[in-house]
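User: Please check token order:
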Amino acid sequence: MRRRRIQRLETRLILWVLAFSLLQVVLFAALGQYLLERGVREEAGRKALDLAQLVAELPQVRQALVAGIGSPAGDALAPFIDHLWRRTGADFIVVGDTRLRRLAHPQPDRLGKTMQGGDSQEVLAGNTIISEARGSLGFSVRGKAPVLDAGGNVIGLVSVGFLNRSVESIVAGRYLQWLPVVLAVFLVGILSSLWIARRVRAALFGWQPHEIARVFAEQSAMLDTVRSGIVALDLDGWVQRSNRRARQLLGVDTSQESALHLRDLFPDQAGFLLRDVEQVLDGVELYAAGQELVLFRRPLRVGGTVRGVFLSFRPQDEVAHVSQQLAQVEAFAELLRVQTHDYSNKLNTLGALIQMGAYGKAVELIGLESQGHQAMVNRLLDSTGEPLLAGLLLGKYHKAKEQGVSFEVAEESVLDAAASKALLERLVSILGNLIDNAIEAARVGPRQPARVRVTFDDLGDHLIFDVEDSGEGLHRERLEALFRPDYSSKSGRQHGVGLYLVKTYVSALKGTLEVGQADLGGARFTVYLPRRPTDEDNRS
């Protein structure tokens, strides 16, 4: 438990900041003591010198030095200096003659003896000095000045000093004045460490460093084991992180990851993927790095704010099989639903006719229904020769009929059954999206009756498909944005990708797509596809 507590980020930060604050306090105290002691010694030296110069100019001192040791004036100097010394605060005042014999000294038993320290010869030469030396009273800071007679000749010297213990006492007294400042600095360090610890903990959502490291390692391992490519971006589109699969799919050099932009990965779709990043995208198909990809986009939120974009994608061929099966199941389910609803209405009508005894009308209704449905089935099978395509068109026929839209397959339509499996699978998606859009456009359009017409033909090595509607048509200013993934004339998140998927599939099949005005009054979409898809498509 103790080891876990020490690993907590708050404890580490507090200990680190306190240690740093303590180091600052120690360094501050050491530097302060050095500067303070040096300042006190300089101040004591200047004070001692000023006092020595003042004493050297006193008449009593000059008279005593001129009279010499043993004279009445010389003997009277010691009590006079002793009285003066006690009033100045200095530790000693010593007066000596040119032979360095003491005429005044704090200790009477040392009068007449030679002055010590070895720093008096320069003073006897007429100079004033500040020195630190050891005398008879101990180590001291002293100021020395020569005593001059009326003719300017040196007749003695005065030494005033402060002992080392006095200097240290002054330093200690002043240092105590700094102690509150030192303690305040240490207290600020403690408070700042607590504040920093809380702020950092809040920024990391309460996670500890070892927990973050473990989660980072786990996520890295998981990202590199999933089959999907994953890329994390900031809001400007710069790649923050990607997994191994994403780099493989997009052909990205690992050493260049930190300098990659979304434009380097998806040149044609970068603008779209960075627009409206709060919108969720599911299953958008696009073409990049020479292959078809199925992409998902999620906003990356931190603390409730969008801070980036999260992309995941897989090759289209890995999900194509499942997607195609699902699409076929959905198509059959839609067909069954439409037929159930349609036949339920007709059965109700037949029941009412029988109850009323209108048997002839009932038989006529049955004949018309059977004849119309069978005629459509026979026409589709004869013209396409491909059950998959015929099933798609039959399902759309019933869907259009339920919505009150007349669905037609042009009589001149014909399609050889020799088309490849890959091409037919893509045709289901291409025609399905185009016909659904046409039915919707005709249903809400201004022209009545609402009509949709499909025409297809094969010319040599190419297949041609026309899907026309009687809707409002396409405005010229919308044509440029028509095939963008984010464009739609319908509301809802799932809309807006149908025509983009059509363009993606057509481009993958090396075909072309044209948009124009239909004979029915609405829009016409014409698709030209080569009969044999590329090797890349066959792998899909």
